[in-house]
Design a protein that fits this description.
The chain is α/β, with parallel strands linked by helices and 265 residues long. Helix content is 36%, strand content 15%. The strands form two sheets. Strands 1, 2, 3, 4, 5, 6, 9 and 10 form an eight-stranded parallel β-sheet that branches. A two-stranded antiparallel sheet has the order 7-8. Strand 7 and strand 8 form a beta hairpin. It is globular and about 50 Å long. Bound molecules: zinc ion (ZN). Zinc ion binds next to strand 1.
Amino acid sequence: MTSAWQSFAAELSRWRDCGRVANFWWRDDDATRPTAELSRLTALSVQAQVPLGLAVIPDGADPAIFADLGPGIEVLQHGVDHRNRAAAGEKTSEFPASESPDALLRRIATGRERLQALAGARLLPVLVPPWNRFPVALVPLLAGLGFRGYSTFASRESEYPANGLRQVNTHVDPIAWKRGRGFIGEERALALAIEHLAARRTGAADVTEPTGWLTHHAVHDEALWSFLERLFEETRDRAGARWLRPAEVFLADDTTMTRQDRTDL
Ligand SMILES: [Zn+2]
């Protein structure tokens, strides 16, 4: 075992030793049509028995992608059309400050209806804004549209940004977006995971927020696919680690999901 994997295993052991379970969840973004990469992704989830939150872009989503999703795969809403509407100088966003709240919410509701018709019971009422960006002031209004979950990137500030709306983010992005979109390497990826786990364990981050792994199947290189396989092997049956289903992550009763994790630090 290389030292990065040893360090990762050591962090999981620290969780186990204090009687807690390091829980993880997996979100993959940008599904829209059937591709070899999407098939590889869903097959990996089934084979590794690791549940997957598949964030699908409603506009233009091909009904075929919902045809044979594995048992542990649930669908999340990834924006509406994933089109960048940011003004010059503004950060990339489908939902820039310039769009009126009414128009924005209407678009989201329409996207949700479309996705609901396609994905049926697999769709969870969870919004994943493209580029992980959404106007903060409008987040509470998502609850009024029927959303119960919301997911971006980095440690959350609050579990409930609005009544009934639980935020659970992702924390490890293994792709070097600005350097050729390759895998960042197992050492760096595991270091990011250890960083979040240690922050949770020591109280520097919310201990009850599961550590989220964010992938983008369309751009994975072989090294990243191999890394994910190994990650699942190393964590799946290990005492001290557990992969949550997206429905557990976003919808489970608070006390059910986190009972184990709310013990004193
Ligand atoms: Zn995206």
